[in-house]
Amino acid sequence: MAYLRSVNMDHYLSLDQGDRVQVMYVWIDGSGEGMRCKTRTLEQEPEKAEDCPEWTFDGSSTKQSEGRNSDVYLIPAALFRDPFRGGKNKLLLCTTLNYDRTPNGTNHRVTCLDAMNKESVANSHPWFGIEQEYTLFDPDGSVLGWPKGGFPGPQGPYYCGVGADRVYGREVVEAHYRACLYSGIKIAGTNAEVMPAQWEYQVGPCEGIEMGDHLWMARFIMYRVAEEFNVVVNLDPKPMSGDWNGAGAHCNYSTKIMREADGLPHIEAAIEKLSKRHPYHIKMYDPNGGKDNERRLTGLHETSDIHTFSSGVAHRGCSIRIPRHCAAEKCGYLEDRRPSSNCDPYQVTEAMVRTTILNEQ
């Protein structure tokens, strides 16, 4: 099916489209996790998001408005090259506004941008890198590559594995990686994860609002690539119960002073601030206020207990990990291991700077 789809599309995508450009508008829907898109034609190639016009969509069909007042505004936010249509065509990440131009319920970019634009935050040059874990499924609901109605061998040989008996779905991973590079996404790497058919890609380092923009578009590109292979991408933080690892979105974070020589005390000071706002961060780290992460953050499978804050050097069972090389070099960054795989990166990064830079209580 995927092969036939690609062969059929090649002919049409090679047709000359003249000077006109296709721009695919992409946004986050009312679930806070799902993504939607639609395309319009522009008369010339846009160079930046602001060159694209605002648009609207039927929010009653995406759980973002009522049918009696259904139009929701699409506000251009970040522009990327389109790896599916190629040429001058674009992908446009948008935010959503209600009929009265207030932020829609799942539009967390507005408050994130407000935090990132504050002088003390901008002067701190916050860098982020998020490790996006996900699981590949067949359309029938079974995990890709797993025996139908059964289970593969125990965890152990799959992490960073090689071989048809150890990794499933590498074609999807490689296609996504190349598509992100083409689009201008700051993708940093990828690897197979501990549970078979679970993978990870890293996006960053990104400064400020760019982290959320790039990760959301990387997710969209993953969904679209998976379509071509007739595979389903699942961001549930605990897709399989039992003795299987969950999926997270570990957030690596630093400010300019942390990255400089003798920055370790500033990393430790940030961790101390984070320790005092653990419940707030848990609420911000999944789209259901911490409920999704309850199934993942159990203290098992390389996680911390959701109710307890902890930190340590090279300790993957802690809330916050200081990488070994950062402790040795006495500067660098920290890794917050609490965000769930289905988190909103705008909320994660906003929470981080509000706690560690703006000193909110």
Structural description of this entry:
With 361 residues, this protein is an alpha+beta fold. The chain is built from eleven helices and 13 strands. It has helices spanning 2-13, 109-116, 119-124, 170-183, 210-228, 256-259, 264-275, 278-284, 291-294, 324-329, 345-356, and strands at 21-28, 35-42, 55-58, 71-81, 90-97, 127-137, 187-192, 198-207, 232-234, 249-254, 311-313, 320-322, 334-336. α2 runs parallel beside α11 and α4 (170-183) crosses α5. The chain is globular.
Q: What is the ordering of alpha helices and beta strands?
A: HEEEEEHHEHEEHEEHHHHEEHEH
Beta content comes to 15-25%
Using the CA coordinates, give the radius of gyration: 21 Å
Unreliable stretches covering 5 or more consecutive residues: none
State the end-to-end CA separation. 54 Å
What percent of the residues sit in helical stretches (DSSP H or I)?
A: 25-40%
Q: Give a count of the beta strands, DSSP E runs of length 2 or more.
A: 13
Anisotropy-based shape:
globular
